[in-house]
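Sample intake sheet
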Amino acid sequence: MYAELYSRNLETFQVQEYIDRRSNLPPRSYAVDLRNRQFECGIFQTLRYPFAHVHAACERAKLNVEQFIDEIYTLQRTLRIWGNEFPTMPDVSNWKVPPPAFEMVLDCSLRRHPKG
């Protein structure tokens, strides 16, 4: 990937993505706005995580990409989520299953006719 700086003050970049030279696909370009945390395809805004295009822009601007990682991805947040105790499930054989409130009746007209 190649990140071209548009505005250092606004931290806006045009990132060109070179997939594979042998695939004969033309390079694709994406706009990355680091100041407003905007990425043209919307992934940066939705998942709040810097993907490869943001990494390329940060590398070009000599910025630490970690400042663009949302706090929901921090170890402390993860431990807080998974640190909760979950109740254990009772043995399935002890579950009380009520009888069905209706009777199922087959509709023979929906059957396929056998071949031959």
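Comment: The first strand starts at residue 2 and ends at 7. Helices lie at 43-47, 52-61, 75-82.
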